[in-house]
Every structure is written in structure tokens, then in C-alpha cells.
Specification:
This protein is 31% helix and 22% strand. By secondary structure, the protein is of the alpha/beta class. The chain has one domain. It has a 4-stranded mixed sheet. A 4-stranded mixed sheet has the order 7-8-9-10. Strand 3 and strand 4 form a beta hairpin. Helix 3 runs parallel beside helix 6, helix 4 packs across helix 5 and helix 5 runs parallel beside helix 6.
Length: 196
């Protein structure tokens, strides 16, 4: 009998994360999209990833897009040390550190069915500022609940505002498969940046 037939597949795996350190010069000055993707993949290695607020928001969003296609899990750590799971594609039982909040990655199942739009602009900062919860995770949760009501299929979606980076990355995850193009724009007068 083969050795693997004796393995107990019900034993959970312990998740270990890589925390990549990206060269900002390469991120800003890569000769091509392929070079940029190679740099990101060399750092993340297809492993579960923890990203931090050490980079600007368009870079974080672009990295998230690449990681989305190659890693089983993404966690974002805020400047305050709060760890939020952005997505989780693992199918087996796992053990992860207790300080990672995993409840947000599943909220995309709560997206309401809205009519498709050609162009959709979501002012992330507006939703963040409307929330009055005192603690960051509750404020984030209520912001996400409101954002989910406005997400729909679109040809082009633009996420706007300087709100917390984790809120942008979560919204980006919720938009996967719904937005053909994703753009980031800091404010109504700033130049939009294409993420994908």
C-alpha cells in the first residue's frame, strides 16, 4: 500500500507567511509589466503573504492583484498592528495566528445583485468617514457593509480616496470578477492610476 494512504488528511496545516520587502525603485521603474510581476512573484513565492503599509496605495493594489493570482492567502497588517485577512483560497483546515481577523475575506458573499454599469466610482473615503464606530475593526466592518451595497459588475471601476489601505484591498478583492478594469484615484482632481 502506498505510504500516502496512511496519512491523516484531517490534521490541519500551520500557515506560515512571507512578508516581502519590495524594492521601490523596481516597483516604480520596471521596464515592463512582466518584469514588475517577476519581481513581485520572486518576493512572494506563491506562499501566503502579509503586506504592510510600507508602500503607496497604487503599489499595494497592484501587488495584491499579482498575489491574488499566485498565493493562497493575503493578510494586510495596518500601521497599528491590526492584521486583516484580505482573501483566503485554502481549501484544507489550517491553523493561523490568532491575531489575524479572518471574518472580512468572506464578506464578498454578501454582495447584493445590482444592475451592471459601464463606469462605477466608489468613494471609499466617504464610506469610511460616515462610520462612527470607535474601534478600527468595527469601523472597517461597517464601511465594508456599505461598500458591498454599491458594488456591481462594471467595465471600469474607480476606487477613490485616501481611506485606510486595508479598505481598498478588501474592496479590490470583492470586485474580483466584477470589474474588467480597476483604477485608483486619490481625489477627484488627481490623475487615476490603472491597477488592472
Amino acid at each position: 500500500m502506498p505510504l500516502n494512504s496512511y496519512q491523516n488528511n484531517s490534521i490541519p496545516t500551520i500557515v506560515t507567511y512571507v512578508t516581502p520587502t519590495f524594492d521601490t525603485e523596481i516597483l516604480k521603474n520596471a521596464k515592463s509589466k512582466e518584469d514588475l510581476n517577476r519581481h513581485i512573484l520572486a518576493q512572494t513565492k506563491g506562499e501566503p503573504v502579509i503586506l504592510t503599509e510600507s508602500l503607496d496605495l497604487p503599489s499595494l493594489m497592484y501587488i495584491t492583484n499579482v498575489v491574488y493570482t499566485s498565493s493562497p492567502e493575503l493578510v494586510f497588517e495596518t500601521k497599528d498592528g491590526i492584521k486583516i485577512q484580505v482573501f483566503d483560497f485554502t481549501s484544507e483546515e489550517v491553523i493561523r495566528p490568532a491575531d489575524i481577523n479572518t471574518s472580512f475575506a468572506l464578506l464578498n458573499k454578501e454582495i447584493t445583485k445590482n444592475e451592471s454599469k459601464e463606469d462605477l466610482t466608489v468613494d471609499i473615503n466617504k464610506f469610511w468617514e460616515l462610520q462612527t464606530a470607535n474601534d478600527t475593526e468595527h469601523k472597517l466592518y461597517y464601511s465594508v457593509q456599505e461598500i458591498l451595497k454599491h458594488i456591481t459588475n462594471s467595465t471600469k471601476t474607480t476606487l477613490m480616496g485616501p481611506a485606510p489601505a486595508v479598505l481598498f484591498l478588501l474592496t479590490q478583492h470583492y470586485l474580483a470578477g466584477k470589474a474588467k478594469e480597476l483604477w485608483y484615484q486619490e481625489g477627484s482632481n488627481s490623475k487615476p492610476v490603472r491597477i488592472y
